[in-house]
Amino acid sequence: MNKTSTYNKRTEEKIRCDACPVMCYIADGKSGACDRYANESGQLVRLDSLIIMRRMEHEGGAIVPFLGEGGDWDRELIASQDAFVSAIGAGTTYPDYKPAPFIVSSVVDGIDMITVVSEGIFSYCGAKVKIDTDRHIGPERALIRVDNEPVGHVTTAEYGSQMLSLGGVHHLTGGSKKEGRVTCATLLSLCNGAAVEMQVDDGSMLVLQAGKPPIINGVSEQRMRVGCGSATIGMFAAQWIDLVDEVVIVDDHITGVMSEHQAGKVIGWPASGIKIIGRRSTPGRYFNVAEPGTGWGGTSLTDPLTILGAFDIKIAKPGDTLLMVSTTGEQFSYYELDNNLVPIEQSMPDRLQTSIQRIEENCEPALTSISFIGGAGGSLRAGVTENPIKLTQSIKNTLTRVTCGGAPVYIWPGGGITLMVDVTRLPENSFGYVPTPALVAPIEFTMKQNDYEALGGHMEHVMSISDVLSGKVGQQNDHQLGGKRIVDQQLNNPWPIRS
Ligand code: SF4
Q1: Which atom, in ligand 1's list, is nearest to the CA of 18?
Q2: Whose CA is nearest to atom 2 of ligand 1?
Q3: Burial zone of 428 (CB within 10 Å; 0-12 exposed, 13-18 middle, 19+ buried)
Q4: Cis peptide before 437 (omega within 30 of 0)
Q5: How far lies 493's CA from each of 89, 105, 118, in Å?
Q6: 47 closest CA partner among 17, 3, 8, 13
Q7: Within 10 Å of residue 63's Cβ, how many Cβ atoms?
Q8: Which of 4, 33, 399, 495 lies at a CB distance of 3.0 to 4.6 Å from 394, suitable for a disulfide?
Q9: In what helix (H) or strand (E) does residue 184 lie, and over which residues does it extend?
Q10: Residue 447 CA, ligand 1 centroid: distance in Å
Q11: Which helix (H) or strand (E) holds 237?
Q12: DSSP string, 17-53
């Protein structure tokens, strides 16, 4: 058998999926490399169900289906004015010249609207991770590894949170094959709500899961700090006056000292003669009191007294009292000066208990937030219009709304369509992958019909929402749907299709 006849035999028995550059040949009864498409009796089928969102509302404390102008609610059907065709399970726009799998018309408040629906293949994508903790997890720019492969790095910390930048095109495509595969698998798991274990170089072992407390070196974080040491002094100054002679809020970034701080001065707090070892920024605000770590207030401290020098003998006197507390209220100690002006730890007096509890109750639960970030590239934009720059301009001019699986997104300013979305606002398991490697994420573009025409939209491929609800697919598709599933709108998401 020559080479040509082998090829023909292969193509006769298998069908080719061209929904991504891998171009799998798929045998009957088998699925392609990404498990998203399969060959069912010679027909290419998108295996996951197409997700249709159902509009919901609050009513008398209960969450109920939205009843618009459509009259009685039929539980078996979903009224077209209360339905939104999400891109989850819709299929992919690939190769680029094809129109998106669904270009859906609907009428909202008497206005003709269009929603262009596609699962985007994001080669340029990653996750920004916010971890609510003061604990030092590793130096800025340290690599983060999963299965020993670098998948991202520690980036600039934010107020009360450590931040990671994971994924991106360099880890997905610029390193070894294994690095790309592990990076893709890490992003997919995190975006789909699964827990992932990762190690920071010269730092902590982390277990992270969207919407759950971070686990740092095996310990589940409980609370996010109330504020930096300086802010905590300001917030609670009035509650401590006359109860204690000095308060120190221990913090890795800004340690606060009541008697020197502006908040203390304003309410007439007297000097205590305390001496802090650290770099004084402004009165009552000290930097670098200790190394970062997992001890008091995100420092390495286990004994806070190590940041104190000798008390000023001209000001301090035996019996003076001192409260030292961390920014989460998790660590606290109370001291009285002895005859040599040395602080000696005593049990916490009842009069100060309430203030410690107040700090704790002002700390929000520590969570892990995962935001998917990706750039909508060639195929996505060409799937909407023959002139892709017009889509970018329409989004920048707020004529086109972008959603991911019905969830609102943040569009970065500047060129291109770089979007960011909180993964917990999408239905579970909304993300997929292809082995190029790249992540597959749902994306919808919604606009008025006349704006869609104006940007050169594929008007000949528009289909009505009732056709989609009845199970039809766009004429441009060479695949069938695996099914469709109705999912209730998350009430913290605005209804994605509005005039
Ligand atoms: S990896 Fe998936 S999307 Fe890509 S060609 Fe294969 S089956 Fe199709």
Answers
A1: 5
A2: 34
A3: exposed
A4: yes
A5: 20, 21, 20
A6: 17
A7: 11
A8: 399
A9: helix 177-191
A10: 30
A11: helix 229-240
A12: --SSTT--EEETT-B-TTSSEEEETTEEEE-SPEEEE
Pocket perturbation via mutation, ligand 1, pick of 23, 434, 480 by most ligand atoms within 8 A of CB: 434
List the pLDDT tens digit at each of the 499 positions of the chain.
344 444 444 555 799 998 888 999 999 999 999 999 999 999 999 999 999 999 988 777 777 777 655 544 444 467 888 899 999 999 987 777 789 999 999 999 899 999 999 999 999 999 999 999 988 999 999 999 999 999 999 999 999 999 999 999 999 999 999 999 999 999 999 999 999 999 999 999 999 999 999 999 999 999 898 889 999 999 999 999 999 999 999 999 899 999 999 999 999 999 999 999 989 999 999 999 999 988 999 999 999 999 999 999 999 999 999 999 999 999 999 999 999 999 999 999 999 999 999 998 999 999 999 999 999 877 788 889 989 999 999 999 999 999 999 999 999 999 999 999 999 999 999 999 999 999 999 999 999 999 999 999 999 999 999 999 988 888 888 888 989 999 999 999 999 998 7
Look at ligand 1, atom 7, and give the residue with the nearest C-alpha: 32
Longest dimension (CA), the chain: 102
User: Measured in whole angstroms, how far is the alpha carbon of residue 314 from the centre of its chain?
Assistant: 53
Residues in contact with ligand 1 (CB, 6 Å cut-off): 17, 19-20, 22-24, 32-34, 36-37, 434-435
CA 485 to mean position of chain CA atoms: 25
Neighbouring residues of 50: CB distance < 8 A, sequence distance ≥ 6: 85, 86, 88, 89, 90, 468, 481, 482, 483, 484, 485
Q: How much is the pTM? A: 0.88
Distance 26 CA to ligand 1 centre (A): 9
Tokens (6 digits) for 92: 């992919």
CA 442 / ligand 1 centre spacing (Å): 16
> Is residue 364 within 8 Å of residue 328, measured between CB atoms?
no
Task: Among 14, 23, 37, 39, say which to mutate for ligand 1: greatest number of ligand atoms within 8 Å of CB.
Answer: 37
Locus of tokens 């498990």: 35
Give the nearest ligand 1 atom to 436 CA. Answer: 1
Cα-to-centroid distance, 194 and ligand 1 (Å): 23
- CA dist 236 and 468 (Å) reads 58
Structural tokens at position 243: 């109860």
